[in-house]
Write a structure and sequence with these properties.
By secondary structure, the chain is α/β, with parallel strands linked by helices. Helix content is 38%, strand content 20%. The chain contains 19 helices and 26 strands. The strands form eight sheets. Strands 9-10-11-12-13 form a five-stranded mixed beta sheet. It has a four-stranded mixed beta sheet with strand order 1-5-6-16. β7, α7 and β8 form a beta-alpha-beta unit.
């Protein structure tokens, strides 16, 4: 309400993440010269009060939940704000609304700042309204003349994905947004989905991965007969859907119909997705393993791709335009070109269209780096097209590892291969920039504290199952980390060796790896708001462990040995 109200009043709507420190809040508020700050509760209020004296433009603070624990000048409750406006005439506001122009900036999205300070992405009225219209037409969302689309909001609204889907597209089509509990990403999201039964859902990869882990762990407890039925159904589901992708299906196979009745419908109901015709994934890379897992259960995950600077989506997969691991095709009215492609067709992905942003607030040099003279937005991502113009993301220029030997290595495909080979592993991060060889940080799947979102020491059921198969009785991360469990370490090394055997060159082999004491998390600072690994942050946090890897091997007499660091 505050966001939309600010825009209608001719101001800028700006979001701050609830996980931001007082200093990070100060940076955003100072950078955009905020006049009014709206906070959720006393805890968030304290962050602003700590830096209030450094914010010369600040006129008022509004707390919209709970009662105020202290009275201060220019500090209001939401009820106070409503009362202030109750006796104001509509005429001045109507004049402001009628004076607004499509090309004026109306919202600022601060990039999460995985590299350097966050940048204020300026989006215009036209950016938002045109993108909402184009996306809703492209994915064939139902408008109110035919029914009502229902979605669940669980990502921070400061993020462009949540803002575009949960606010602007929903308003455009007259849909309904249900707001999940604050602990949605800590495990309560599925309960909300079961209550709401959404018709469309955008899940960040970690959401789909967590669902996959939960289903696998529940499946492990089933009877042998049930396991066999589910395995058969998944084989049928994957084959039928892959045939559909390749247009090899002239009719619906009989065994698919049985599998749907026995398994697929029940899975959808358990997840609250029985009405959900479109399940999307975006905002971070997703593994092929997770895509195939859901496809085998007759839940295709349609990948989309974009960025804050493109008002959200740029390419989207559709039921009739879908390729596994592709991010789909351009939105209508948008264009993609690949800048400086190599011999395999990989180039920097550039966007063009009415969704492209106005520039970065007060950062003309950064704006010139991102937007060229012809209006193409340079994404910093690497990608390629197939013959049907489906876009595939192959890496990120800033994440590209350039070894001391000069080899360019995109890390994500190697990290995904390790996670796929080792179901025990939660996060895998490849290291090797300016180094003589590649190494990897590994974290173990564990239980998560439902209240704080912090990773706990107790292993997840999937991790326990892996350990038992490896001949280990480990039940905690601390039983494994730092080389304490030789059986698990041997099993991890076997998985790494399998990945290395498929490496395209010796330079792409993982020479050393370590298991960290705890998993990555948002509260720990290793993950961003959409659960994407903040690589520069991780490099800083685990600098000592990384330095040890390379110092140890420098002293070793056999640098080609593939070993784990303990």
């Amino acid at each position: 309400m505050a966001d939309i109200g600010a825009i209608f009043a001719g101001g800028f709507a700006v979001g701050i993440y609830t996980t931001n420190s007082p200093e990070a809040c100060q940076y955003v508020a100072e950078n955009c010269m905020a006049n009014i700050i709206v906070v959720e509760n006393h805890k968030q209020l304290q962050k602003i009060l700590q830096v209030e004296d450094k914010l010369p433009h600040l006129k008022a603070i509004i707390q919209y939940k709970d009662t105020l624990k202290e009275k201060r000048p220019n500090l209001y409750t939401w009820a106070d704000l409503m009362e202030l406006g109750r006796h104001e005439p509509d005429a001045p506001l109507n004049m402001v609304i009628s004076s607004l122009k499509p090309n004026q900036c109306c919202t600022l999205i601060y990039t999460s700042g995985t590299t350097g300070q966050p940048k204020g992405v300026m989006l215009s009225h036209d950016n938002l309204t045109w993108t909402a219209l184009s996306t809703s037409i492209h994915v064939n969302l139902t408008d109110t003349t035919r029914g009502q689309e229902v979605g669940v909001s669980y990502l921070p609204l400061s993020h462009i994905a949540a803002q575009m889907v949960d606010i602007w597209i929903t308003i455009k089509i007259g849909g309904a947004t249900y707001f999940a509990e604050p602990d949605a990403l800590k495990g309560s999201l599925v309960n909300t989905l079961r209550e709401v039964h959404p018709t469309a859902l955008l899940g960040v990869p970690r959401v789909w991965e967590k669902m996959q882990e939960k289903m696998k762990s529940e499946g492990a407890k089933s009877s042998n007969l049930k396991k066999k039925v589910v395995a058969w159904a998944k084989d049928v589901g994957l084959q039928t859907n892959l045939n559909r992708l390749n247009q090899n299906v002239s009719h619906i196979p009989f065994n698919y119909r049985i599998a749907k009745k026995l398994v697929f419908n029940k899975v959808r109901k358990a997840l609250g997705l029985e009405r959900c015709s479109n399940c999307y994934t975006g905002a971070a890379p997703i593994t092929r393993d997770t895509l195939e897992f859901f496809l085998s259960l007759d839940i295709p995950l349609y990948e989309l791709y974009g960025m804050s600077e493109s008002s959200g989506p740029h390419t989207i997969s559709l039921p009739n335009a879908f390729r596994l691991t592709s991010c789909g095709i351009d939105l209508p009215g948008c264009k993609t070109k690949l800048h400086n492609p190599d011999e395999e067709g990989n180039g920097e992905i550039c966007f063009w269209g009415r969704h492209v942003f106005m520039g970065y607030l007060n950062m003309p040099e950064k704006t010139e780096e991102a937007l060229d003279a012809e209006g193409w937005l340079h994404s910093g991502d690497l990608g390629k097209h197939d013959q049907n113009k489906f876009l595939y993301i192959t890496g990120r220029i800033k994440e590209l590892i350039i070894t001391a030997g000069g080899e360019n290595i995109p890390p994500v495909s190697i990290e995904d291969a390790v996670k796929s080979a080792l179901p025990l592993i939660s996060n895998a991060m490849l290291i090797g920039d300016k180094k003589k060889f590649l190494s990897m940080l590994l974290t173990i799947k564990c239980q998560v504290n439902a209240d704080t979102g912090e990773p706990e020491d107790e292993l997840s059921s999937e991790a326990v199952e892996f350990c038992r198969k490896a001949g280990s009785n480990a039940t905690r991360v601390s039983d494994i980390a730092s080389g304490r469990d030789q059986a698990v370490y041997a099993a991890i090394q076997e998985g790494i060796t399998r990945v290395n055997e498929k490496a395209t060159s010796n330079a792409q082999r993982i020479q050393k790896w370590i298991v960290l004491d705890q998993d990555f998390s948002i509260v720990g600072g290793e993950l961003g708001p959409t659960m994407k690994v903040k690589r520069p942050e991780v490099m800083k946090m685990y600098k000592m462990q990384i330095d040890n890897i390379y110092e140890e091997l420098a002293q070793s007499s056999n640098p080609d040995n593939l070993v784990a660091t303990k």
